[in-house]
């Protein structure tokens, strides 16, 4: 009973002691969340299957947070994916030792850097660090280059031959590099390496070692033998060791032969030289050299091969990024085949760097690393991790954490490494090589070798795979493995293989144009000729070849009049640019028939109405509403009926000679519905929707049937008009006309004068051009009965024949003062300024019966005349005898105030009015001394020529529409051809030239004179330019061809070749100068390069030194702390509390020690007692004597009798005693 109780007590004591000794782990479990797992097993059963480890980790981390605590059997275990905790672990000297899981590595590869414990590890690391210094790595570049060239040769048979497994090839390649860089470049000649048996051995060993890590029972040799895994493993291990030993022996023998080994300073640091030197000096044993060599080769070959393969695989899955990387590499290495990649080249591969980083982020080659605490470790959140805890740092999940990397954390996107994206990430959020005290020794080596390999592979091959990224399944190993390895296809790249990639801001790929694509038509960049819309238009084109305008464009809508079906077609030209056309075009059908022969389509300013006009009337089409995602009319219905009304039908019926000359929407109409129509009877009729509001007389009225009378002969018929910017009337009369429109004080809002009687009245001068070149101005409001006609306006400088007796068009550019453009049908364009007259000028004309001519408030000052070539006539220059005349139409460029277009039977001109910018500059200038110089002459560019012979046949412009953003022009020609061109937005047109010159003119430029570009521009400037020649209807006759050729040759000779010679000479001079400068800069770059190398080398050394120093510092701090504690305890003048505390601690120590000693002696006594008890029991058993039954009963009987006898005697004695009285 006693023994049993003793046993229980003892067991309880032991159990209690066990729990007590682990109390700090339990306390830690209370502070850090995590799965408890099952008793005894902990979470071990979840980690039995390697394929599930990463998933299990992911689930735990999702559930419990980035740092968790649990048990692996009885072992306390943490999983960490929080960058701050990771930093605490990696930078702590108390957490340098690897976890117990790596014990298997010791058996296979030997006890080297990878698994060695501190402090031996820190000594070895310090001794081996120089083998990975910057200069040594640079000396490896020839090996990297040579080996990659051999790899390219090996890949050749695989190209364009379907998908292949490249992993074995890459592993053999990296093993070759690793052995050569560690053991010397003559290893290549070794038989083993060449026969690839070495790779098999390394792989066999790596596999068994990994199995041993995850299945600890395999660490027993006996179990391995039982499972039949020992023989291969042992053979592989032995062969690798023999191979390495042979190399070391060879090296030592070679060194012995040379009495004075002539080793260069770099070579001395090459691993084998360094290791054998340490061996000779007795610092390393043979075993050390073998183990370390083994470990370095192991550390290098599989990780690097995986990093390269996974990068190629990801690029194959994301071809856009592959193309961008290819472009970068191609810019450095224009030719395919083998080329030398230098260290400087690797530094320039910025995008490849981002790709490599991103690849190791998404698939870290080492997904989980392990550590254990050798002392208590205090984390920065205050939690103390006690000694003896195993820690797994989950790099894989940290690299894919959405909290750190954002919503796209799980996909491959190199933009994660753009400087602005990476700068605010925690320094330990990305650690493929780990960081801190025990990081990868070969990280720089790995990056350089991977970049060299990737550059050469990506330059020569395009990698493809059919395996989707989403199907990748990752398996935790010592290195990262894939359950199914995607195969890769190699497509050969050519030297001329070129893909133009346009990149938008932020690095996204916007558009890719392959050069192999069929060339886009140069005269129809929008490819409108192929559209159904223009096919329909072409069907019903007017027969008469005279300029008209059947096209108009407002915002993204292009309108075209279909004369055959009498309806308006509309198409969104911008969406067709983007190639996402769901609706080809829409047909707007007029609600009532349009009986007109439409020659002009004009959309209102806000695009709510479209005016369709012909010589004999005007019809208005009300446009329906636009809605839906693409903003089509009525959400994209193909045919829509629109409300239509004709204006003054009766008037035209009654006046057979009445014709429409011009129509314009009033730009200041609030309702966007005021239309001004100029008729050939010198009236402007003002309509609001269908209502006639006013009829303004702008000249002598023509009486019925008089259209071709003397008035016409004198050219007194108005041919065109335009509306000038608003002006306040001079000598404002107090009376405010009823219903007049005025501007409010802010000058922005138009209001009816009726409601605000005291406000100023605003007039819009309507400038009218008569055929004889006379200009009249009608002063009036938007909607006013009151008008004042003035004219003919004085035009200065005066000329004998006025400015054109064949005037045909007028246009106002709203500059300040307004610019008037007057066109003559002989191609002359007069640019004039509309100036206020100093004093009101009286008209010299007699007063018409119906119109009162008022004194003129304006004068027109002609600044210049530009002459247009109307067709390319033989003899060039346009001034040939047989010059061609035709009406010229004008259209303002809404993007560039300085530019307008003139179109006619012979094509299209773009005219740039240079003085407008000078005017602008002068007005903006605050200096009083500034002078206005209007000398710069305007330019007219012949953009499109539709007439290139002297015959009468024409191919008139039937429509002109100006597109904005991107700027362009669309022309419909009489032949049915559509021309669509991009318009260059010349910065000079947007910014005043002088301003831009001044802004860009720095001191150096002022010193050096005009820039080279300016010089070339001035040399190339020519008066005649070569327009695009529109396609002809029929093939040209021999005469036409001859004229065309003659003209072209002349222009070529005069305008191009001579100038090109001059430009060539200028270029030659410039190139010479640049070459000189380049030579000079090359020299400077060389100097800088050398300096940079020196600096980087120094930086490298400093970094290494820093690492060493920080480690020694850490050791020192530890020692100092110990010393301080001792010193503190010893100091007599300590604070009383401290002293008492120290005493208490030492008392407790003594008590604990004595208790421990007591416990120990107790144990010993217990053991002794156990021994004695057992012994005596045994002896007792031995000496035990059993009586035969008979004797036993006899003895018992006798004894019973004796007992009865004794009892009786006792009674007798007691009686006698009583009697005697004793
Ligand atoms: C992409 C390629 C590489 C990756 C991703 C990589 C990754 C790593 C990681 C994560 C560790 C730390 C392991 C741990 O803490 O448990 C490590 C250690 C190590 N690596 Fe690498 N490595 C690469 C290439 C190389 C190369 C090329 C070499 C040798 C030339 C090398 C030699 C070593 C050695 C010797 C260690 C142990 C260092 C020590 O504990 O002091 N590695 N590597």
Structure summarized in a few sentences:
The protein is an alpha+beta fold and 1222 residues long.
Please count the beta strands (DSSP E, at least 2 residues each). 48
Structural class: alpha+beta
Secondary structure: helix percent? 40-55%
Bound ligands, each once? protoporphyrin IX containing FE
| Residue-averaged pLDDT | 80
Structural summary, described in words:
Helix 12 crosses helix 15 (286-317), helix 15 (286-317) crosses helix 18 and helix 16 (319-332) runs antiparallel to helix 18. 41% of the residues lie in helices and 20% in strands. Strand 37 and strand 38 (828-841) form a beta hairpin. By secondary structure, it is of the alpha+beta class. The protein is elongated.
List the helices and strands and how they pair.
Blueprint: H1 2-21, H2 23-31, H3 50-64, E1 67-72, E2 75-80, H4 83-90, H5 103-108, H6 120-128, H7 134-155, E3 163-164, H8 167-183, H9 191-194, H10 197-214, H11 221-226, H12 230-257, H13 265-268, H14 271-280, H15 286-317, H16 319-332, H17 343-348, H18 350-362, E4 368-372, E5 377-378, E6 384-385, E7 390-394, H19 395-399, H20 402-405, H21 419-422, H22 443-460, E8 461-464, E9 474-475, E10 481-482, E11 488-492, E12 499-503, E13 509-514, H23 532-539, E14 551-554, E15 557-562, E16 567-572, H24 573-577, E17 586-590, E18 600-603, E19 609-614, E20 617-622, E21 626-627, E22 632-633, E23 639-642, E24 644-647, H25 649-654, E25 660-665, E26 674-679, E27 683-688, E28 691-697, H26 710-713, E29 718-723, E30 741-743, E31 750-752, E32 764-770, E33 775-780, E34 788-790, E35 794-796, E36 807-813, E37 819-824, E38 828-841, E39 853-854, E40 856-867, E41 889-892, E42 899-904, E43 907-912, H27 915-924, E44 939-945, E45 957-963, E46 968-973, E47 978-982, H28 987-990, H29 993-1000, H30 1003-1008, H31 1012-1020, E48 1028-1029, H32 1038-1130, ...
Parallel strand pairs: 2-7, 17-23, 34-39, 35-40, 44-48
Antiparallel strand pairs: 1-2, 3-11, 4-7, 5-6, 8-11, 9-10, 12-13, 14-15, 15-16, 16-17, 18-19, 19-20, 20-24, 21-22, 25-26, 26-27, 27-28, 29-32, 30-31, 32-33, 33-34, 36-37, 37-38, 38-40, 41-42, 42-43, 43-44, 45-46, 46-47
Helix pairs in contact: 7-8, 7-22, 8-15, 10-12, 12-15, 15-18, 15-22, 16-18, 31-32
The structure holds protoporphyrin IX containing FE.
């Amino acid at each position: 009973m006693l023994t049993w109780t003793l046993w229980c007590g003892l067991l309880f004591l032991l159990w209690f002691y066990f729990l007590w000794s682990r109390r700090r782990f339990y306390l830690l479990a209370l502070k850090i969340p995590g799965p408890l797992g099952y008793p005894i097993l902990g979470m071990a059963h979840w980690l039995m299957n390697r394929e599930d480890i990463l998933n299990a980790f992911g689930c735990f981390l999702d559930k419990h947070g980035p740092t968790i605590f649990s048990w692996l059997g009885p072992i306390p275990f943490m999983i960490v994916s929080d960058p701050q905790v990771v930093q605490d672990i990696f930078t702590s000297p108390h957490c340098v030792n690897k976890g117990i899981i790596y014990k298997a590595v010791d058996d296979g590869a030997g006890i080297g850097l990878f698994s060695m414990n501190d402090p031996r590890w820190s000594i070895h690391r310090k001794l081996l660090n120089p083998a990975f210094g910057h200069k040594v790595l640079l000396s490896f570049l020839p090996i990297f280059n040579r080996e990659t060239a051999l790899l390219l040769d090996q890949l050749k048979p695989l190209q364009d031959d379907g998908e292949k497994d490249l992993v074995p090839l890459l592993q053999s390649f990296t093993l070759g590099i690793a052995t050569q860089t560690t053991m010397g470049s003559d290893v290549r000649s070794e038989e083993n390496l060449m026969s690839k048996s070495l790779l098999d051995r390394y792989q066999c060993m790596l596999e068994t070692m990994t199995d041993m890590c995850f299945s600890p029972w395999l660490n027993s040799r006996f179990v391995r033998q039982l499972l039949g895994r020992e023989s291969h493993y042992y053979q592989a291990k032995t062969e690798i060791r023999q191979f390495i030993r042979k190399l070391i022996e060879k090296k030592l023998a070679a060194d012995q032969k040379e009495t004075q080994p002539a080793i260069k300073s770099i070579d001395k640091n090459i691993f084998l030289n360094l290791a054998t030197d340490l061996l000779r000096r007795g610092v390393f044993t043979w075993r050390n050299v073998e183990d370390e060599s083994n470990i370095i080769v192991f550390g290098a070959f599989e990780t690097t091969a995986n990093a390269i393969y996974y990068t190629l695989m990801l690029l194959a899955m994301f071809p856009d990024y592959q193309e961008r990387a290819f472009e970068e590499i191609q810019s450095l290495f224009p030719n395919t085949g083998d080329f030398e990649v230098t260290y400087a080249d690797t530094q320039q591969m910025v995008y490849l760097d981002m790709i490599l980083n991103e690849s190791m982020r998404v698939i870290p080659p080492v997904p989980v690393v392990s550590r254990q605490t050798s002392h208590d470790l205090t984390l920065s959140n205050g939690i103390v991790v006690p000694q003896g805890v195993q820690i797994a740092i989950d790099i894989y999940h940290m690299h894919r954490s959405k909290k750190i990397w954002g919503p796209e954390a799980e996909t491959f996107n190199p933009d994660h490494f753009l400087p602005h994206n990476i700068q605010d990430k925690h320094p330990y959020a990305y650690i493929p090589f780990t960081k801190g005290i025990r990081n990868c020794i070969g990280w720089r080596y790995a990056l350089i070798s991977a970049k060299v390999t990737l550059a050469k592979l990506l330059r020569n091959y395009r990698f493809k795979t059919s395996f989707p990224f989403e199907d990748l399944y990752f398996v935790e190993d010592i290195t990262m493995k894939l359950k199914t390895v995607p195969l890769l296809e190699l497509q050969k790249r050519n030297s001329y293989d070129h893909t133009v990639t346009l990149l938008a801001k932020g690095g996204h790929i916007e558009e890719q144009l392959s050069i192999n694509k069929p060339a886009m038509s140069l005269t129809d960049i929008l490819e409108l000729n192929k559209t159904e819309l223009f096919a329909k238009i072409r069907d019903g084109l007017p027969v008469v070849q005279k300029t008209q305008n059947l096209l108009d464009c407002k915002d993204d809508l292009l309108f075209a009049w279909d004369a055959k079906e009498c309806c308006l077609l509309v198409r969104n030209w911008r969406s067709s640019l983007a190639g996402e056309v769901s609706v080809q075009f829409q047909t707007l059908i007029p609600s009532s028939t349009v009986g007109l022969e439409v020659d002009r389509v004009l959309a209102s300013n806000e695009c709510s109405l479209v005016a369709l006009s012909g010589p004999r009337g005007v019809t208005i089409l009300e446009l329906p509403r636009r809605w839906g995602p693409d903003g089509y009319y009525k959400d994209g219905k193909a045919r829509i009926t629109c409300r239509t009304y004709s204006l003054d039908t009766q008037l035209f019926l009654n006046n057979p000679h009445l014709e429409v000359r011009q129509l314009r929407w009033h730009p200041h109409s609030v309702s966007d519905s005021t239309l001004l129509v100029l008729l050939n009877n010198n009236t402007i009729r003002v309509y609001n929707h269908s209502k006639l509001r006013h009829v303004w007389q702008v000249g002598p009225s023509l009486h019925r049937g008089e259209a071709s009378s003397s008035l016409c002969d004198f050219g007194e018929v108005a041919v065109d008009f335009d509306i000038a910017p608003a002006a306040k009337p001079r000598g404002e009369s107090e009376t405010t006309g009823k219903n007049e429109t005025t501007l409010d004080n802010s000058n922005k809002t138009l209001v009816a004068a009726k409601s605000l009687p005291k406000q100023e009245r605003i007039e819009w001068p309507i400038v009218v051009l008569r055929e004889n070149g006379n200009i009249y101005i009608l002063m009036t409001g938007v909607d006013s009965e009151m008008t004042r006609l003035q004219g003919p306006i004085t035009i200065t400088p005066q000329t004998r024949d006025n400015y054109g007796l064949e005037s045909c068009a007028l246009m106002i550019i709203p500059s300040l003062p307004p610019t008037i453009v007057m066109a003559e049908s002989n191609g002359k364009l007069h640019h004039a300024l509309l100036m206020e007259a100093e004093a009101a000028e009286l008209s010299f004309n007699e007063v018409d019966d119906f119109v009162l001519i008022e004194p003129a408030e304006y004068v027109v000052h002609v600044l210049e005349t530009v002459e247009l070539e109307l067709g390319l006539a033989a003899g060039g220059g346009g001034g040939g005898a047989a010059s061609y005349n035709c009406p010229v139409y004008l259209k303002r460029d809404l993007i560039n105030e300085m530019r307008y277009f003139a179109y006619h039977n012979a094509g299209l001109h773009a005219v740039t009015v240079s003085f407008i910018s000078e005017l602008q500059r002068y007005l903006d200038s605050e200096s009083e001394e500034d002078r206005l110089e209007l000398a710069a002459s305007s330019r007219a560019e012949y953009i499109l020529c539709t007439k290139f012979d002297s015959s009468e046949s024409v191919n008139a412009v039937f429509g002109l529409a100006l597109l904005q953003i991107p700027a362009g022009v669309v022309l419909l020609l009489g032949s049915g051809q559509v021309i669509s061109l991009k318009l260059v937005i010349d910065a000079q047109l947007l910014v005043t030239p002088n301003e831009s010159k001044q802004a860009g003119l720095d001191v150096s430029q002022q010193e050096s004179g005009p820039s080279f570009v300016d010089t070339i521009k001035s040399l190339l400037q020519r008066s005649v330019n070569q327009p695009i020649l529109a396609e002809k209807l029929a093939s040209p006759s021999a005469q036409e061809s001859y004229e065309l050729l003659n003209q072209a040759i002349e222009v070529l000779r005069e305008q191009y070749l001579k100038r090109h010679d001059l430009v060539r000479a200028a270029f030659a001079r410039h190139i010479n100068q640049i070459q000189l400068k380049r030579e000079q800069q090359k020299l400077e770059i060389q100097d800088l390069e050398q300096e940079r190398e020196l600096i980087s080398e120094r930086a490298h050394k400093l970094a290494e030194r820093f690492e060493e120093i920080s480690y020694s510092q850490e050791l020192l701090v530890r020692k100092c702390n110990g010393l301080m504690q001792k010193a503190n305890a010893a100091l007599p003048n300590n604070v009383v509390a401290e002293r008492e505390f120290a005493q208490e601690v030492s008392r407790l120590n003594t008590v604990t020690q004595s208790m421990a000693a007591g416990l120990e002696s107790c144990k010993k006594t217990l053991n002794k007692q156990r021994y004695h008890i057992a012994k005596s029991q045994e002896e007792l058993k031995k000496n035990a004597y059993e009586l035969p039954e008979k004797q036993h009963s006899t003895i018992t009987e006798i004894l019973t009798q004796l007992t009865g006898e004794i009892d009786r005697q006792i009674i007798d004695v007691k009686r006698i005693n009583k009697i005697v009285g004793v």
